[in-house]
Amino acid sequence: MGRLSYEMSRVMDDGKTVYSGDDGTGVILAKFVADEAGDLSRGTLYAAKVTQKEDGSFSIEWIELGRSTDGDVHDSIRSIALN
Questions:
Q1: What sign has the CA pseudo-torsion 9, 12, 14, 17?
Q2: Residues 49-80: tens digit of each pLDDT
Q3: Strand blocks (E) in 1-83
Q4: What whole-number distance in Å separates Cα of residue 72 and Cα of residue 54?
Q5: From the CB of residue 59, how many other CB atoms can be counted at a distance below 10 Å?
Q6: What is the reported pTM?
Q7: Separation CA 49–CA 81 (nearest Å)
Q8: Residue 83 to residues 3, 35, 76, 77, 80: CA-CA distances in angstroms?
């Protein structure tokens, strides 16, 4: 699901979509969509772009941050740590 500061994660009934947030200021609202239900080791990570309207309502646009697997993330961290 990426390497972010997650709190309050909620796996939806489809077993693929996970919404996560953080209770700080200026932090991320994230959505992860797994490739397969029940397997959160690979998928696509999104960040919310929230726009408040003058009437007090708001809209959310989901911006794709990238796709990876647990193995991809592990290999990237190892390559940085070894250099």
A1: negative
A2: 999 999 999 999 999 998 887 787 778 788 88
A3: 7-11, 17-21, 30-36, 39-52, 58-69
A4: 42
A5: 9
A6: 0.77
A7: 32
A8: 20, 31, 11, 10, 5
Q: Hey, what are 62's tokens?
A: 């989901």
Identify whether the C-beta of residue 32 lies closer than 8 Å to the C-beta of residue 2: yes
C-alpha distances in Å from residue 3, one per residue of 36, 43, 56, 59, 68: 19, 13, 32, 26, 11
Residue carrying the six token digits 């796709």: 67
- Count of CB atoms within 10 A of residue 13's CB? 7
Give the position of tokens 């500061």. 5
CA 66 – CA 25 distance, rounded (Å):
24
Q: Hey, what are 16's tokens?
A: 């693929």
Give the C-alpha separation, 19 to 47, whole Å. 10
Ramachandran angles phi, psi of 74, nearest 5°: -60, -50
